[in-house]
């Protein structure tokens, strides 16, 4: 069972492949705490076309690329899906890879991304009060959100509103913080999940730019 996967194929056509496809381990699909769904309604109404009508996969705690829309087939098979977006995208390549030609030597050596990493966002700041949300992959809960109004020189703890604790914390953790904002400086935040993972200041370079959860926005080198 260790090498069995559930492959999903969509009716959606794409330039890179004959159709969109992806897969997850069978163990994830069968996990009673994994909550993998086939969804045909949302909030009591049929799915809209944008959300994958008539039926889609929902894989909580995994990157969105695994929640295939416009579902056509489901196959239990040995190994991952051979689809382009499973085998030739959504992978963290070594730092030295800088071109498509260099990447070609690593696609079959690097694992596909499943769970997403811990991340947080500032949504609104007004009159010294900042609000936002945080989330973590794999059903891990958010343990802490730090908020700064002086470019990370000092931090205050946010008040969390998390409806569910791990191992099934699939939803956003909303947060609120009172913060003193320096003139012309954006408010930033960083989150810590229940496994102790914390957002770093700077991203780790990778060719596809995936899984970048740094709390500081990167500045292009020519600016």
Notes on the protein architecture:
With 223 residues, the chain is mainly beta. The chain folds into two domains: 4-104, Alpha-Beta Complex (Sulfite Oxidase, Chain A, domain 2), CATH 3.90.420; 118-193, Sandwich (Immunoglobulin-like), CATH 2.60.40. It has three helices and 14 strands. The strands form five sheets. Strands 8-9-13-12 form a four-stranded antiparallel β-sheet, with no helix packed on it. The chain has a three-stranded antiparallel β-sheet with strand order 2-1-7. Strand 4 and strand 5 (45-46) form a beta hairpin. The chain is globular, with a radius of gyration of 19 Å. The model has no long low-confidence stretch (mean pLDDT 93).
Percent in helix = under 10%
How are the strands of the largest sheet arranged? 8-9-13-12
In total, the number of strands is 14
Q: What Rg is obtained from the alpha carbons, in whole angstroms?
A: 19 Å
| Portion in strands | 25-35%
Q: In sequence order, what are the helices and strands, one letter per element?
A: EEHEEEEEHHEEEEEEE
What would you say the CATH architecture of the largest domain is? Alpha-Beta Complex
> What is the end-to-end distance?
51 Å
Mean pLDDT over all positions: 93
Largest sheet: 4 strands, antiparallel
Number of domains: 2
């Amino acid at each position: 069972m260790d090498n069995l996967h559930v492959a999903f194929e969509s009716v959606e056509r794409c330039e890179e492949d004959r159709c969109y496809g992806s897969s997850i381990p069978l163990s994830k699909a069968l996990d009673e705490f994994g909550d993998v769904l086939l969804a045909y309604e949302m909030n009591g109404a049929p799915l809209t076309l944008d959300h994958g009508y008539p039926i889609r996969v929902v894989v909580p705690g995994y990157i969105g690329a695994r929640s295939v829309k416009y579902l056509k087939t489901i196959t239990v098979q040995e190994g991952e899906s051979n689809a382009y977006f499973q085998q030739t995208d959504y992978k963290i390549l070594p730092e030295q890879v800088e071109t498509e030609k260099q990447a070609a030597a690593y696609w079959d050596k690097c694992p596909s991304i499943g769970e997403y990493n811990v991340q947080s966002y500032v949504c609104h700041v007004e009159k010294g009060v900042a609000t936002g949300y945080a989330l973590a992959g794999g059903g891990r809960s958010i343990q802490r959100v730090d908020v700064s109004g002086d470019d990370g020189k000092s931090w205050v703890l946010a008040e969390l509103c998390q409806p569910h604790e791990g191992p099934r914390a699939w939803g956003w953790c909303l947060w609120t913080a009172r913060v003193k904002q320096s003139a012309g400086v954006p408010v930033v935040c960083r989150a810590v999940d229940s496994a102790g993972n914390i957002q770093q200041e700077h991203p780790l370079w990778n060719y596809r730019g995936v899984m970048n959860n740094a709390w500081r926005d990167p500045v292009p080198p020519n600016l």
